[in-house]
Amino acid sequence: MTPLKSPRPPNPPNPPQSRQSPNPPQSPGRAAAPTAWSPRLWGLLTVLAGNMLIDALEVSALVVAMPSIGADLDLPLTVLQWTMSGFAIGFGGLLLFGGRVVTLLGRRRVYLAALVAFAAASVVAGLTSDPALLTATRIVKGFCAALTAPTGLAIISTAFKEGPDRTRAMSVYTLFGASGFTAGLLVSGLLTDVSWRWALAFPAPVVLVLFVLGLRLVPADEPPSYTPRRYGAVSALALTGSLSALVYGIVSVSQYGWSDARSIGSLVLCGALAGALVKAERSSPDPLLRAGLLKNGPLIRSALGAAALNGSYLGLLIILTFQLQELWGWSPLLTAVALLPASAPLAVTALMSGRMVNRFGAPRLIALGALTPLAGYVLYLWQRDPVSYAADVLPVLLLVGAGFVLAFAALNMQAVSGVPAAERGPTGAVYQSAVQLGAVLMIALVAALLFAHRAPPEASPAAVLEGYRPAAALVAGVGLLGFLAGLAGVLPRAGAPRRPSAEPRSPEPCSPEPETANRKE
Q: Which of 12, 145, 363, 479 could form a disulfide linkage to 489, CB 3.0–4.6 angstroms apart?
């Protein structure tokens, strides 16, 4: 940890008072001003925030590119969805494992290695036409993001002094993360108009530049010397494998039917791997998921609410992408611009979110932030042909965007409220894993429903819209679950004493830090 400033020596008793003191004493409640940063610190923050931006935009980079990839490679939506769900599987399924790897091997070593692997996977993804290899690259990139995103936050916590300096660095880091989804839509739309391969490969040169800078700027650290080194690889493989099998089973049911061996076999495999995961965690003296975290009410409500918010949002974007491009004939770039009203408001208001939570309280903002997207989903279900963007699509996107403005930071802050500092890393990891798992399930389910209810090639626009309705109903149903989870935090429980909920006093991002705080080094 960066050493804190030594305390100021006490004033002598009864100091003489001058009429005009050149250095008037500051009031105890006044925060110290941030110090001037060296070029090296600015460079380090540029590397960390730049990579956070890349990690965030990877989530949205393929939303508007999916129709172009499917048309070029002749892939059905049940296969095409792996380009999005694969990244979420690698991110969410390996996030807890990634924190353990960083703890055991050291931040600098893992961070720089993940940058190289991310760049290599981007190049391979842009060159390949094999769906299996393309999916594998997306899983690898998700795992790399699971390594770098929380590690970047941990590096900031040690490289910048506690107080205004660290708060300012955290604000920059958070702003880049919140802007990543919007940036991903625009960059992907622009590049997909040229070739969808550029949308997959473009992060490679940027990440390599960050790697070269990181070699000089990322501070060295020593991993702990305790033994034995338990990585939890069995649990990580079981979790990732069960998620992959579940996704394959969902889309196989849509493509081949319930009685097909591929559907039955994959779902059985999912159950077997889930059982292996539970056994491995129970028998391990150092499990990846601590059972006590599952008894944390605010964490569970936040995880459910965030999973529903993120999953339903991505599901809606998939539906709208195919509606705008295949039904209306819009270009990828125009589609990306059309989807901005749902993502841009969060990027614009990210730095004000903490003040909103401090003023109104996280539970109320979460409940209201779940209600507005639900209203948008119901509005989308209500529409009938003919449909216009201004009257039917834009209001839906604005309502969803309002939900993220209200609930995004509140969910993050409620998840770690009341948690001791040493436990915030594991708590954040569970929360972020839930967010990604919501994306995994919803992407697969929406793709399966769109494929199962697709209209014939020569169908009327009304028939095509009708084919979107089951997937849109699922999105609305998940939005309702998110609202109920948020409502549970507002309504008083029977027999529970009324007391003010503990709210964090500063908007720290809920990203999992490596587990070093919980171990003896």
A: 363
Of 3.20.140.10, 3.40.50.150, 1.20.1250.20, 3.40.50.720, the CATH number of 39-232+286-492+502-514 is 1.20.1250.20
pLDDT bin (cut points 50, 70, 90) of residue 299 is very high
Write out pLDDT tens, residues 474-512: 999 999 999 999 999 888 765 555 544 444 444 445 555
Q: DSSP letter string over 322-389?
A: HIIIIIS---HHHHHHHHHHHHHHHHHHGGGHHHHHHHH-HHHHHHHHHHHHHHHHHHHHH--SS--I
3-state secondary structure 208-275: HHHHHHHHHHCCCCCCCCCCCCCCCHHHHHHHHHHHHHHHHHHHHHHHHCCCCHHHHHHHHHHHHHHH
What's at 190, amino acid-wise? Answer: L
Continuous H helices in 453-507: 461-488
Sign of CA dihedral 50, 52, 55, 57: negative
Under 8 Å between Cβ of 62 and 317? no
Measured torsion, CA atoms of residues 142, 348, 413, 336, in degrees rounded to the nearest 10: -30
**In angstroms, rounded to a whole number, what is the distance separating the alpha carbons of residues 469 and 382?**
10
Q: Which two tokens stand for residue 316?
A: 């809606």
pLDDT per residue as tens digits for the range 399-440: 999 999 999 999 998 998 878 877 878 888 899 999 999 999
CA 312 and chain centroid, separation: 14
pTM: 0.87
The three-state secondary structure class of 419 is: coil
Per-residue model confidence (pLDDT) at position 185: 94
Average pLDDT on 70-84 reads 96
